[in-house]
C-alpha cells in the first residue's frame, strides 16, 4: 500500500487517512489509486464493519493536485475523472458498510464532494468547505452536481458552485450539508465513538439501507416501496435480525455479528 494512504484497523473500524499533508492532501494519481485499493479491501474484509475517511495535517483534502494536472505529459482530465474520482465516489456509495467522513480541515473541490458522498460527515468547528471549481474556470466533479442540490436545495447549491464561497462547518450543519460539527478538543473522540457504534450494529441491514437510500434518489414511490419490501423480507432472515428480536424479548443488549 502506498504511503499516501494510511490504514489503521481496530475494533472493526478501518481508518483511512489521506496522507499528503504538505500538499493539503490534494489528490495525485498515486493517492487516488491507493484510496481505491483501500476501499476495495474494506469491502472484502468481513471484520471491517465501518470506515472512517480523514486527512493528515491541517487539511482534509484540497481537491486535485493541479501541478500534476498541468505538467507536460501529465495526467489528463479524462484520466483524472474516469480513473480517479468517479471510481472513488462510486465505491463510497456502493460499499455496503457505513463510511464516516471526518473533516479535520479544509475540504475543497473534489475533496468537498467526496466528503458529501459519504454516509455521515463530521467536521471540526474550524473546518470549511468550498467548491473552488469556478475559481479556475472548471465545473464541479466527483458527484457535486448530483449530491449538493439534493442536500441543500437548487438555489443554495447553485450559489455554492458558481460563487465558490467558503462554508464553515457550522453553516454546513445548519443547511443540512453535513451531519455534525464538533469542537476541536472533542473531534477525535466523537468520530471514534460514532465509528465504534456503527461497527457494532447490524452491518447487513446498514448496507441494505444504504442501497435503498441510493435507489431513493432516482426511484419513484412505487418502485421504492417494492424495493423496501423485497429487502425487508431478505434481511428478516439474517442472523442479526434474529439476535435483535431475541435481545429485545430478553431485555438485553444485542450482540450483532454483521451477518
Quick description:
InterPro entries: ClpP/crotonase-like_dom_sf, Enoyl-CoA_hydra/iso, Enoyl-CoA_hydra_C. The protein is 48% helix and 16% strand. It has 259 residues and is of the alpha/beta class.
Question: What pattern of helices and strands is seen along the backbone?
Answer: EEHEEHHEEHEEHHEHEHHHH
Contiguous helical run count: 11
State the helicity in percent bands: 40-55%
Instruction: Give the N-terminus to C-terminus distance in angstroms.
Output: 28 Å
What is the chains' assembly state? single chain
User: Which structural class matches the secondary elements?
Assistant: alpha/beta
Shape: globular
Lateral arrangement of strands in the main beta sheet: 1-2-3-5-7-10
Reported for the largest beta sheet, the result is: 6 strands, mixed
Task: Determine the strand fraction and express it as a percent band.
Answer: 15-25%
Number of strands: 10
Kindly report the average pLDDT value: 96
Stretches where pLDDT is under 50 for at least 5 consecutive residues are: none
Radius of gyration: 19 Å
Organism: Aureispira anguillae
Pfam families: ECH_1 (PF00378)
GO molecular function: hydro-lyase activity
Family: Belongs to the enoyl-CoA hydratase/isomerase family.
Amino acid at each position: 500500500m502506498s504511503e499516501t494512504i494510511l490504514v489503521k484497523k481496530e475494533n472493526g473500524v478501518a481508518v483511512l487517512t489521506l496522507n499528503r499533508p504538505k500538499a493539503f492532501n490534494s489528490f495525485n494519481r498515486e493517492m487516488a489509486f491507493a484510496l481505491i485499493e483501500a476501499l476495495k479491501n474494506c469491502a472484502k474484509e468481513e471484520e471491517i464493519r465501518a470506515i472512517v475517511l480523514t486527512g493528515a495535517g491541517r487539511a482534509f483534502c484540497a481537491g486535485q493536485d493541479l501541478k500534476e494536472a498541468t505538467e507536460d505529459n501529465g495526467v489528463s482530465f479524462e484520466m483524472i475523472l474516469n480513473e480517479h474520482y468517479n471510481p472513488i465516489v462510486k465505491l463510497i456509495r456502493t460499499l455496503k458498510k457505513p463510511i464516516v467522513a471526518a473533516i479535520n480541515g479544509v475540504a475543497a473541490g473534489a475533496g468537498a464532494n467526496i466528503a458529501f458522498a459519504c454516509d455521515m460527515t463530521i467536521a471540526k468547528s474550524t473546518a470549511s468547505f468550498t467548491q473552488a471549481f469556478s475559481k479556475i474556470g472548471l465545473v464541479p466533479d466527483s458527484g457535486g452536481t448530483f449530491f449538493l442540490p439534493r442536500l441543500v436545495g437548487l438555489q443554495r447549491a447553485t450559489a455554492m458552485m458558481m460563487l465558490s464561497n467558503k462554508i464553515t462547518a457550522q453553516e454546513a450543519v445548519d443547511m443540512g450539508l453535513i451531519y455534525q460539527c464538533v469542537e476541536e478538543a472533542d473531534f477525535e473522540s466523537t468520530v471514534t465513538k460514532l465509528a465504534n457504534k456503527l461497527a457494532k450494529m447490524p452491518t447487513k441491514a446498514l448496507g441494505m439501507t444504504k442501497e435503498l437510500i441510493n435507489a431513493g434518489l432516482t426511484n419513484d414511490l412505487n418502485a421504492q416501496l417494492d424495493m423496501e419490501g423485497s429487502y425487508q423480507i431478505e434481511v428478516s432472515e439474517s442472523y442479526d435480525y434474529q439476535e435483535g428480536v431475541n435481545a429485545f424479548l430478553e431485555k438485553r443488549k444485542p450482540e450483532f455479528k454483521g451477518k
